[in-house]
Design a protein that fits this description.
alpha+beta
Length: 377
C-alpha cells in the first residue's frame, strides 16, 4: 500500500462562528499550507478548538451553533455544503484529547470508520488495519491481541490506536485536538516525534491544537496564535519567536521581557534607539508591528539573551530575587526609575565556578542588539 496521501488545500475566508449570541470566531482569514503541520495555540477560550472542529462540521451535532463565511477544502465550500457531508467527514480524520477506545476489540476499534464510510472485502480491510497499526508503531505490540479489548492497552497505546483509527481512513486532512495532554511527560515527548514522523511520511496536511508552546514550536511548520476569537499572528515558529507582532504574542510564545519605553530614533543602519529610564538601548525594529518615532513602544528581549557585563548596550538593573534551577539561575531584576514594578527575568547558565550574585545587588545587564526587537506598545 502506498504511503503518500493526497493532501488537502485549505482556504478560510471571512469565517465567523456563533454559540447562540456569543461571537466565538471573528472574521477568520487563513491559508493553510499543504503537507504541513499548522499548530493552533492560545489561551483557554480563544477559539482554537472551535475553529478546528469546523473543518469536519462537528458543530452540526449541537444546537444553537451557527457558522458563516467560507472554508474551502479541495475546491468545495464545506460551510455551505449540503450533500456528501459524510464523504467529507471520511476524508477529515480527527484525534481527540482523550484517546478513549470504543467498547470493542482493538481490531473493531480501528475498523469502525472504514466500515462506516467504505465497503471493503475482509482481506483488504485486514491489510489496511495492519498498515495503519504499523504507521502508528503499534503492530508489533498488538498483532496477536487484535481481538482483545482496547481498554487493556496503556495510555500511550490507546493514543496510538486512536491515531490508527484515523489513519486507516487515509484522510486528506488530519485534525488533532490536544492529543498528548493526558500523557505523562516522557511519553508525550516520544509521541511528539512519532506524530511528526507519521505526518511527514504520509504527507498529510495537519491542524494541531495545543496549549503546550514547546509542542507547537517543535512539531509545527507554522503556528497560528489566537486571542479572543481572532488570529493575532501566523508564521513559522522562528518568525513568531524572533518577530512577534503584538505584546500578546511576545508574551505567549516562550518567555519574554517586555520593557516599556519610547522609540527615540532609527539610525542609518536600521537599528531602533529605545529610550527607557534615561538610557537608549539598540535593538531590531519589528517587521510586523513597528512603532513610529516618539511613540510609546515595547522592547522584547528573551531572558536567555540577557547577560551581566559591561557593554555599550547595557542598563543598570537591581536583583530582587533569584531562583536556582540546576542548569541555570533565574535572576529577577528591575530597572530603577523606569516606573515598571514587575520584575524582568534574566536566565544565566550555571557552570562550575559561576559566581552567584546577591539579591539587592545592582548589575549592568546587556544584550546583543540583534536579540531584542522593538514593537508598538
Amino acid at each position: 500500500m502506498s504511503d503518500t496521501t493526497m493532501a488537502s488545500k485549505i482556504e478560510v475566508k471571512h469565517f465567523n462562528f456563533y454559540y447562540g449570541a456569543f461571537h466565538a470566531l471573528k472574521d477568520i482569514n487563513l491559508s493553510i499550507a499543504e503537507n504541513k503541520v499548522t499548530a493552533f495555540i492560545g489561551p483557554s477560550g480563544c477559539g482554537k478548538s472551535t475553529l478546528l472542529r469546523t473543518f469536519n462540521r462537528m458543530y452540526e451535532l449541537y444546537n444553537e451553533q451557527r457558522a458563516e463565511g467560507e472554508i474551502w477544502l479541495d475546491g468545495e465550500n464545506i460551510v455551505t455544503k449540503t450533500e456528501g457531508v459524510d464523504r467529507l467527514r471520511s476524508k477529515v480524520g480527527m484525534v481527540f484529547q482523550r484517546p478513549t477506545p470504543f467498547p470493542m476489540s482493538i481490531y473493531d476499534n480501528i475498523a469502525y470508520g472504514v466500515r462506516l464510510f467504505e465497503k471493503l472485502p475482509k482481506s483488504e480491510l485486514d491489510d489496511r488495519i495492519e498498515w495503519a497499526l504499523k504507521k502508528a508503531a503499534l503492530w508489533t505490540d498488538v498483532k496477536d491481541k487484535l481481538q482483545d479489548s482496547g481498554f487493556a492497552l496503556s495510555g500511550g497505546q490507546q493514543q496510538r490506536v486512536a491515531l490508527a483509527r484515523v489513519l486507516v481512513l487515509r484522510p486528506k486532512l488530519l485534525l488533532m485536538d490536544e492529543p498528548l495532554s493526558n500523557l505523562d511527560a516522557k511519553l508525550r515527548l516520544h509521541m511528539r516525534s512519532e506524530i511528526r514522523r507519521i505526518q511527514q511520511e504520509l504527507e498529510i496536511t495537519c491542524l494541531y491544537v495545543t496549549h503546550d508552546q514547546k509542542e507547537a514550536l517543535t512539531m509545527s511548520d507554522r503556528i497560528m496564535v489566537m486571542n479572543r476569537g481572532h488570529i493575532d499572528q501566523l508564521g513559522t515558529p522562528m518568525n513568531l519567536y524572533e518577530d512577534p507582532a503584538t505584546p500578546f504574542v511576545a508574551d505567549f510564545i516562550g518567555q519574554a521581557n517586555l520593557l516599556q519605553g519610547k522609540l527615540a530614533s532609527v539610525d542609518e543602519n536600521g537599528w531602533g534607539h529605545f529610550a527607557v529610564a534615561g538610557k537608549e538601548l539598540l535593538a531590531r525594529m519589528g517587521k510586523q508591528n513597528p512603532p513610529a518615532i516618539g511613540e510609546n513602544a515595547l522592547l522584547v528581549v528573551r531572558p536567555e539573551n540577557l547577560t551581566m557585563n559591561e557593554s555599550d548596550n547595557a542598563i543598570a538593573m537591581r536583583i530582587v530575587n533569584r531562583l536556582f534551577e540546576g542548569d541555570r539561575i533565574d535572576y529577577h531584576v528591575v530597572i530603577e526609575g523606569s516606573g515598571q514594578e514587575k520584575p524582568f527575568s534574566m536566565s544565566v547558565p550555571f557552570l562550575p565556578g559561576t559566581q552567584i550574585i546577591d539579591e539587592g545587588s545592582t548589575v549592568n545587564v546587556s544584550f546583543n542588539p540583534q536579540a531584542g526587537v522593538i514593537i508598538k506598545g
